[in-house]
Amino acid sequence: MKTIQAYKRAPALENSTWYKGLLISQLAGNSDTDGAFDLVESKMKKGTEPPPHIHDREAELFYILAGEIKVFADGQVFTVVAGESVFLPKKIPHAYLIQSEECHVLALMTPGGFLNAINKINAPARTMEIPSDMETYATVDLTSTMAVFIKYGVRMMSPDEIAEQLPAYAIAH
């Protein structure tokens, strides 16, 4: 068993990946925190958002460093801008749409482990910029992605579920 140790880490090529059009820097993962949480810094652009989904295991907290997102969860719509955060409890259907051209976010997921799913289907970052030549959720067949996610307790919502549980998203999207 690995002994958990104190460390210092910043976004760098060594801990960053490209995933579905996002630049994700892993600041803390499951093995770093003994499963307590994952912490990532993500840089995203409009159009790279994941489809509406539900986490059975993790709660998420997003802190916006730059840009603006609109979050749909639990019958509410939150506009979240730089300097603000939004909390998404586990088992609550949610989605977000990036409102600015780019968005820079710190995401805390607890307990840890969801990054393990992302790390099964990402690619090493070649630069510390948002990838421009990569498929996104909107442009790729999600069958294999959904198969990995379901093993980690994350399920994409069906169009009927979205219309029923996230009607404001269905209208905005």
UniProtKB/TrEMBL annotation:
Transmembrane segments: none
Pfam families: Cupin_2
Domain Cupin type-2 intervals: 43-106
PANTHER family, alphabetized: PUTATIVE (AFU_ORTHOLOGUE AFUA_8G07350)-RELATED
This protein's name: Quercetin dioxygenase-like cupin family protein
Taxonomic lineage of the native organism: Bacteria, Pseudomonadati, Acidobacteriota, Terriglobia, Terriglobales
